[in-house]
Amino acid sequence: MIAQVVVDLPTGLVNKSFDYKVPEHLESSVLPGMRVIVPFGPRKLQGFVTGFSSSSEHNKLKPIEDVLDPVPVLTDELLKLGQWLSEETLSFYITVFQAMLPAAMKASYSKSFVLTGEPPDDFPLSPLFSGRDEVSLEEVMREFPESLALFQQQARAGVLDVIYKVKDQAVKKKKKFVRLSLTAAEAEAMALKLPERSVKQKEVLLSLCTLPEQELQTLLNSTGSSAQSVASLEKKGAVCIDTREVYRDPFAGRTEKKTQPLELTELQEKAIQPLLHAMEKNEHETVLLHGVTGSGKTEIYLQSIDKALNSGKESIVLVPEIALTPQMVTRFKGRFGSKVAVLHSGLSKGEKYDEWRKILRKEVSVVVGARSAVFAPFQNLGLIIIDEEHETSYKQDDNPRYHARDVAIWRGNHHSCPVVLGSATPSLESYARAQKGVYTLSSLTKRVMMQELPPVEVADMREELHEGNRSMFSRLLMEEMQIRLQNNEQIVLFLNRRGYSSFVLCRDCGYAVTCPHCDISLTYHKKGHQLKCHYCGHEEMMPETCPSCTGQHIRFFGTGTQKVEEELARLLPEARVIRMDVDTTSRKGSHEKLLTAFGKGEADILLGTQMIAKGLDFPKVTLVGVLAADSMLHLPDFRAAEKTFQLLTQVAGRAGRDELPGKVVIQSYDCGHYSIEFASRHDFLSFYNREMHTRRSMQYPPYYFLSLITVSHPDLVKTIEVSEKAAEYLKTKLNSSSIILGPVASPIARLKDRYRYQVMVKYKNEPGLRLYIREILNHFQREITQTQLQIAVDMNVQSIM
Ligand code: ADP
Ligand code: ZN
Questions:
Q1: Whose CA is nearest to atom 18 of ligand 1?
Q2: Where is the Helicase C-terminal domain (predicted)?
Q3: Which of 26, 312, 528, 585 is the most buried (most CB within 10 A)?
């Protein structure tokens, strides 16, 4: 029996499976989709079994050393999907397989130096080994890096051996449980007979009489006894202790109030039909659910999932990481209780692993999660939902560069089940497909209770400045805020930036402080008076004088949430403000705490960044203010207008969701821009038509496909040379109607001390493009493996920034 194994070595040279012998004792336990440990050269690597055969073209195969999983962790479907995704995204199989599984299942490797026998008398490393025969490479690097050469020399001389180890990080959590082995009456009798000094044992026994099985630690805490008392009872045969695996429960102690399906409105009833039809007929269909904010899309999701559950099928719900708020989770847990697993980045590695295993073991039938939850190992899928389908976070910007929407549709096809894409502001791609009939369009044009969408007023900040208002609040917004404060209503203020301010600039010479490793401005952080690079983490002190002209007038520019907070304290001292940004929400649970406090009315103003734009539903919010609506418009990104429109629409949707009517004030320096104008009129269709026109004339998606090759290397000349060769090669291969742009420096021209150049390909139909890019990658394979050269390929670019 021979197994094909994809090994954990992400390089082009080994992007295939290798043959291994299955030793007899493993023959009955190894199946495709299981993780194994195999020898590879001098090392040991983790790998995935992808199939079996009875013969191999190689003789002298090495045997599989160990099988890590009792059941396959990649189902047959996921193995197939992995193959497809690897070809689509030009990523390695191993990278794709790993992306499908929780991070805890990735192996960690270590290397050690081991004495081969009795070391010679003059062995120079004796003090470092002192009484042991193994030292890990990690320890060498940490404690005595200067001796590394000596270790290697001794290894070559044969005094030391180098051994490689593979450790599975997927650790199951275990707990001890105590169970009474006697009847309650026997235990009570025994307790009474125990001598005076065994008072703790007595308490333990009596406690077990009322609850015969308890978790050890809980029992010890409640009785104030020690493990020893319980051990004595075990010896006497009164109790037994066993160790069991338990799930880490990120939602421990929380039970959501059970909710019942709401009676659908007429509009909802109509909008859910295409979905229910597809489910009844077991047909794959992609439904674009275009519903304004507050139109009841989530209730449609919930009732469709219910339908899937009733026919014994499973559902996947994807929500953008940023919208995966406790409010959202509560709605799903409230309806489906323990049938729901939740996967998001706030969980620890172990917690994610446990939630994922509930799916594998069929203990849940619904998963709510961020992007990677699209790989949930369900085997009987009835429905996949992507909420806020336009969100850019559904595209992974690292290998494998996949879009969750494409994966969802592949799986929908495989399982013959519908995929729902929901949004108030669909991506241009999806809406265009719906118009062409590739997707089924289903619209919800009104809010559930027919509440009006809030009126939006635009405040022209240039005008304000002209008339002498130098504050960051327009007079209009200020007045509206004062009214809300008087009426005891709530306000949401949205700012599309983080930190205290964005960048530091010298007013005399115009010098902007940039990162020494990246071509990016450093960001000022008030805490510690420091400048930070948000790309590589570089930190330095805020300079006193300009490093370029030594002038005194070096200042930070732009407005951040901290600065707005200070300004609010000055102008509206009576207002209670909750600030939500990366700085105030970095600790686990703080996000939820702040939102709960706001929901309970403990503050008048919720001030925040992107993270407050979505999914929040607070009935007392009657005013939404957007401070710098155009801050995104000037990014060199063909989606800048689309993203601005989407964000403004989302934020505006937070106002007037209940009985109190809401209002929105958008402040901008570029009021005439169509994305702001259409957003202020809640007019998606006009925005869509206008933006499609721009995309067509600029030859951007969805009219053209956009692929991007980014070459990077510490040496600028090398970077340019390789990117030029790549562009040249593509020019000889592609249709004359395709457009090859570049090579040019990337928008971030240097990152972590590497220069970056890019070649962009715009095309309508290039069936051979993947093959040609593969050839380029193969051509540079040796340099990529052996030197610092990197070539990143994104076959379907979402954002050029
Ligand atoms: P969306 O997801 O489209 O923004 P939601 O699903 O959050 O909209 O619905 C907005 C509000 O309307 C929520 O408070 C929800 O509970 C309520 N709602 C939704 N459907 C109904 C219904 N059929 N009857 C009564 N209330 C509803
Ligand atoms: Zn940097």
A1: 296
A2: 541-709
A3: 585
DSSP 487-526: HT-EEEEE-S--SSBSEEEETTT--B-B-SSSSSB-EEET
DSSP state of 264: P
What is the distance between the terminal CA atoms of the chain, rounded to a whole angstrom? 50
Tokens read off for 168: 């599975």
Eight-class DSSP state of 158: T
Q: What ligand is nearest to the CA atom of residue 521?
A: 2
Residue 671, annotated ligand binder? no
- In 258-365, DSSP assigns E strands to 286-291, 314-318, 340-343
Q: Which residues does residue 762 pair with via DSSP β-bridges, in sequence order? A: 706, 739
- Give helix 76-89 / helix 404-415 axis angle, nearest 10°: 140
Ligand 2 centre distance from Cα of residue 207 (Å): 59
- Computed on alpha carbons and rounded to an integer, the radius of gyration of the chain in Å comes to 31
Distance CA(560)–CA(460), nearest Å, equals 20
165 pLDDT more than 70: yes
From atom 25 of ligand 1, which residue's Cα is the shortest distance away?
A: 262
Q: Whose CA is nearest to atom 10 of ligand 1?
A: 294
617 lines ligand 1 (CB under 6 A): yes
Q: Is 448 in the pocket of ligand 1 (CB under 6 A)?
A: yes
Indicate whether residue 229 lines ligand 1 (CB < 6 A): no
- Burial class from Cβ neighbours inside 10 Å (0-12, 13-18, 19+) for residue 66 reads middle
Is 515 annotated to bind a ligand? Reply is yes
The pLDDT value recorded for residue 498 is: 43
Q: What is the rounded distance in angstroms from the CA atom of residue 709 to the CA atom of residue 713?
A: 13
Given a contact cutoff of 8 angstroms between Cβ atoms, the answer to whether 204 and 229 are in contact is: yes
Report pLDDT for 254: 64
For the Cβ of 297 lying below 6 angstroms from any atom of ligand 1, the answer is yes
Residue 265 CA, closest ligand 1 atom number: 23
296 CA distance to ligand 1 centroid (A)? 4
Say if residue 39 is preceded by a cis peptide, omega within 30 of 0.
Answer: no
720-755 pLDDT, tens per residue?
999 999 999 999 999 888 999 888 888 788 888 999
Ligand nearest to the CA of 658: 1
The backbone region for 540, taken as left when phi is positive above 0, alpha when psi lies in -120 to 50, beta otherwise, is beta
Ligand 1: distance of its center to the CA of 425 in Å? 17
Could you count the other beta carbons within 10 Å of the beta carbon of residue 552? 12
Whether pLDDT at 558 is above 60: no
CB neighbours (10 Å) of residue 274? 18
Residue by residue, DSSP assigns 106-124 as SEEEEEEEEE-SSPPTT-T
Residue 240 assigned as binding residue: no
Is 536 annotated as contributing to ligand binding? yes
Which ligand is located closest to the Cα atom of residue 300?
A: 1
pLDDT at 768 over 70: yes
> Is residue 46 helix, strand or coil?
strand
Q: What ligand 1 atom has the least distance to the C-alpha of 424?
A: 3
Q: Is the CB of 268 under 6 A from ligand 1?
A: yes
Helix (H) or strand (E) holding 739, with range, is strand 739-751
Q: Is the CB of 423 under 6 A from ligand 1?
A: no
Q: Ligand 1: does its nearest atom lie under 6 Å from the Cβ of 295?
A: yes
**Is the whole model's pTM more than 0.85, yes or no?**
no
Angstrom distance (rounded) from CA 387 to CA 422: 5
Taking CA atoms only, the protein residue closest to ligand 1 atom 20 is 296
Pairing outcome for strands 35-40 and 554-557: unpaired
Closest by CA position to 18, among listed 68, 70, 57: 57
